[in-house]
Amino acid sequence: MSYGRLKGAMVRMLTSALARSGRRRGAPAAGLASDAVSGAVRGSDPVNGYRVLEQVVRLPVSTWRYHWDPPHVRHLGPMAQDWWKAFGVGENDRTICCTDANGVAIVAIQALHRELAELRDEVEALRTECSRQARSKRAPAHLDTEKAADQEQGLP
């Protein structure tokens, strides 16, 4: 049996086993989809996006492969233990749930968006101030030039 066919068979077996393992009926196998809807979740707490972003920045990320992957296959991401230490979300320190990974990414993107909007506002304010200062400096310089020309001509 080829590697691809064997892998496909294993995925089908795992999916079937997960479906029979007491997961709620209709729940996707391996947690690849989130059923987080109001009424289906408890303990919904707000998240500080800036703190999450700081943790994302500090999170070690590497490329790696599972022992069972062929040598040409590479994955990119953090180790589950580092993830658990940084965010403390999910079931344990051995897995990273896709829902949690998506949530961290979305919160970090939102925090970056807020920072970018604040920086854009600050840049615009600085540009306005620079333009104002440049206009106020040009007027006296222009008047000084006219005064010097008048004095050369003997005008008061």
List the helices and strands and how they pair.
Blueprint: H1 3-20, H2 49-58, E1 62-64, E2 75-77, H3 80-87, H4 98-152
Antiparallel strand pairs: 1-2
Describe the model.
This protein is mainly α and 156 residues long. It has helices at residues 3-20, 49-58, 80-87, 98-152; strands spanning 62-64, 75-77. The protein contains four helices and two strands.
Mean pLDDT: 82
Task: Determine the N-to-C terminus distance.
Answer: 104 Å
Shape: elongated
Strand order of the largest sheet: 1-2
Quick take:
By secondary structure, this protein is mainly α. It contains four helices and two strands.
Question: Any descriptors?
Answer:
156 residues, 4 helices, 2 strands, 58% helix, elongated
